[in-house]
Amino acid sequence: MKKLIACLLGAGLGCALTAHAADELPPQAHPDSAKWEPLFAPDLANADFPKGIWYHEAGALTASQDAEIWSQKDYANFVLDLEFKTAPNANSGVLLYASDTKHWIPNSVEIQILDDWGEKWAKVPATWKCASIFGRLAPAKQVVKKPGAWNRMTIWAKGQLIYVMLNGELVTQCDMSKWTDPKKNPDGSDIPGWYTKPLAALPTKGKLGLQGKHGGAPIYFRNVKIKQLD
Asked: Could you tell me which CATH number the domain at 26-228 has?
């Protein structure tokens, strides 16, 4: 009986450790998000966007113009899991912690989505590449797939800590508190002039959004799921 109890306790502890590992930071793998809540309802009833711009096409969410789609709910401490597919030269992004969706550029954190293979973007700064904290922190490596293939991106956001995993590799780790200068990154590189606030000053709760047909090339999203963390 003692052996059986020990076995059961051990199994329970194993389950607890496994559950904890799913939220462990820094993350080790993409999570199992199959049972998570979709960020946007199938009819987009819980989203804010210019009517007629965002729509579903062949099971994917896409936009006909350069306009954002936003959650109506504010989020803090979450894991956002999604798939995206670029067209050639696509330029888009996942937007976190937006406190002002009309003037979101200085009032949110953008996780860049880019066709790194496109000639149009061959000479842009490393902080513009796919999975970067746009304009602020370059990814450790470039792992985005060529246009037409689906990519998986998972974003962990807990307070001022942001982690980005792309196609199975943890490529971006950011502590917002280190960005205290609105004009310079911690490594001394320049921040784009349209940013007027340092990351350290931004709130860590706000709307989540997706950028539309920015740069003139389509972008497609599917399986956009979210899990809130403690």
From this structure: 2.60.120.560
